[in-house]
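[09:14] KT: can someone run the structure on this one? pasting the chain below
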Amino acid sequence: MMVPTASKRSPCAVVLTALLISLTACSAGDQSEPPASTSAVSSSGPSPSATAQPVPTPAPDACARSALARMNLNQRIGQLMMVGVPANDPVGGYTELVTYAVGGVFLAGRTSTGAEVVGTAVTTLQVQGLNATGTFLHVAADQEGGLVQTLSGPGFSPIPDGVEQGRL
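[09:31] RB: done, structure tokens below
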């Protein structure tokens, strides 16, 4: 394993310091929830029949705030990072990154193992990411179509190139 020299370490330290400062600045703002509406609606007509009411789901903002509140500072910083892992062995590539709580992985390179193998690997990554950060990973791959289709094999349909996609 190569040990970074001081000249390689300095830019990394500068970036991490700037990131830390920006996170601190962003989190120092007003975190209060907007007041909920308390207006009541009265009806003099007959009450509706007993129908199933939809189950309320939390607003996306509330879900995001809840997930963020469960994270420590390192996990929050990790959410800003997406790191490349080998497409043909994403789990092996991610194992070294668990301690850094990265928020996303990019499946780099090419693999022809097929959708089932890639899907199983991504599921394993999601479990490891969930254990490390309390939230799921963002997973990306370069699947533009044509010659740029890094994931192939059984279960992956060919994607037309950009010109053909433009005609669709």
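[09:33] KT: thanks! The first strand starts at residue 82 and ends at 86.
[09:34] RB: yep, looked fine to me
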